[in-house]
Design goal:
Length: 472
């Protein structure tokens, strides 16, 4: 009997199959009962329960799966619960659990070569580009999230500006650059500039107007100022759905300005991208996004695809390819066989080895259909408007700004918002996050939750009012 090759697979497949089925039942039960399972704090001894050591001896799938169900699964982030409104966290989709099972079974490497998973990603990205409205020659790639997508987008902007030689010569001999963001732009822009070597000093913050949108007159002044001192305007960042207020910049206005001055237009549309699928009036919030040179967005937020998954879209496929392609001879493309294929995603991003992120998206769209996502996204906008109405009608709460999409912030007459948020989280009544708007501490709801109903909104506001009264 040969023993090589038998160390890591199950010793008894029948046994393993029973354990897997049992695990699946427990996962399904958890998803089915999601509305009774809010976030809960970790037990004090979680570290002990989970610790591993160099001497760890395998306990087999039955026991390890029991740990998954008892010591790990109950202590999730809580974003699967219908009254989770804190931060912008997607809710997850049961059908994607099936997709993840198949993806792990196939264990495909989506960096390149000629196999089915590449075709799934191609089909998924074609759908995405179709939704985006970008021109025919645009291309896209799936990423871990918007943070990574931003690095890809700004790298393409750099290469368009300075030529692909910059890949070899680096940024040291380049003139100083400037990247324009409005107040409230996500920190991932700064992080991208840090890792690219430009540093956050390259950021030029532009004022917002009374509608919380980038003020285009201020933008013009900022660009003129920099040009006069020899700084090269590298990119202007439009925000489609800002973190704090859910506001959308006037993308058409910025696009026109960028086109006129030949400056790269990037849209951070991490969650806001998806109002493109919503009904009017929300759909119009992203009018002009199709004129961008690059767009970043997340599937793990408003599309509810399980973590992690985002995308970077670039208007020019050739530029995208030439920014990242790098093939040593062991990666040379072959005429035929597994080493063939005309689309190697390692040519379009940072990763060589890549997971099969596309399958969970493809499965979600194939099984649920685009229309259901449209309805779900529109519902969230309506629910946020309802929340704003209830806040307006309350003597204890004050709306911080008019709601434009899916973010509602409000201050309270009594008590500390951080304490109120923590209390509601600990009782499992609702998860709000907190922020500061125009100097006022606020509770913040960012609703990207497909399980939320209007009753959940009413329940959550009643719970907040009670917590405020308790603080009196
Ligand atoms: C979440 C978010 C990001 C960062 O995206 P990740 O997927 O977390 O990397 C960037 N911009 C906005 C507006 C966001 O909401």
């Amino acid at each position: 009997m040969t023993i090589e090759g038998s160390h890591l697979d199950p010793k008894d497949w029948d046994d393993f199959s029973r354990n897997m089925h049992e695990l699946m039942d427990k996962c399904l039960a958890r998803m089915k009962n999601a509305s009774e399972l809010p976030w809960q704090p970790n037990p004090d001894d979680i570290g002990e329960r989970l610790s591993l050591s160099k001497k760890t001896i395998g306990v087999g799938s039955e026991q390890s799966f029991a740990h998954l169900c008892d010591d790990i699964m109950p202590y999730a982030t809580g974003n699967t619960h219908p009254r989770f409104f804190g931060w912008v966290h997607g809710t997850g989709l049961p059908v994607c659990v099936g997709a993840e099972l198949v993806a792990a079974t196939m264990n495909s490497n989506c960096g390149g070569r000629d196999h089915g998973a590449i075709e799934v990603e191609r089909a998924t990205l074609d759908w995405l580009l179709d939704v985006s409205g970008l021109p025919e020659n645009a291309s896209a790639i799936l990423t871990t999230g918007t943070s990574q997508a931003t690095i890809l987008a700004l790298t393409a902007a750099r290469n368009r500006q300075f030529g692909h030689d910059v890949r070899k010569t680096g940024i040291q001999a380049l003139p100083k650059i400037a990247v324009y963001v409005r107040k409230g732009t996500h920190s991932c822009i700064g992080k991208a500039l840090e890792v690219m070597g430009f540093g956050t000093d390259a950021i030029h913050v532009v004022d917002t107007d009374e509608n919380m949108q980038m003020d285009i007159a201020s933008l013009k002044r900022a660009v003129e100022e920099d040009k006069a001192t020899g700084r090269v305007p590298l990119a202007i960042i439009g925000t489609a759905g800002s973190v704090n207020t859910g506001s959308f910049d006037q993308l058409h206005g910025i696009a026109d300005f960028c086109a006129e001055h030949n400056i790269w237009f990037h849209v951070d549309a991490a969650f806001g991208f998806w109002v493109r699928l919503a009904e009017a009036p929300w759909q119009h919030l992203v009018a002009g996004m199709e004129c961008a040179n690059s767009i970043s967005c997340d599937f793990h937020k408003w599309m509810s695809v399980p973590y992690d998954c985002g995308a970077c879209m670039i208007y020019d496929r050739t530029l995208h390819f030439e920014t990242f392609t790098s093939r040593p001879n062991y990666l040379e493309q072959q005429e035929e066989g597994l080493g063939g294929g005309d689309l190697w995603f390692c040519d379009y991003g940072l990763e060589l080895s890549r997971g099969f992120r596309a399958l969970k998206i493809w499965t979600a769209i194939k099984s649920i259909g685009t229309d259901a996502f449209s309805s779900s996204i529109s519902d969230n906008c309506k629910q946020t408007a309802l929340m704003a109405e209830l806040v307006d009608a309350s003597d204890l709460l004050t709306l911080a700004f008019p709601v434009s999409s899916n973010v509602c912030c409000f201050s309270v007459t009594h008590g500390d918002v951080n304490k109120i948020a923590a209390k509601l989280q600990l009782t499992g009544e609702a998860v709000f996050s907190t922020t500061i708007i125009k100097g006022s501490p606020c509770l913040r709801a960012a609703i990207v939750n497909h399980r939320t109903t209007s009753d959940d909104i009413r329940y959550a506001i009643v719970a907040v009012e009670k917590a405020v009264r308790d603080m009196m």
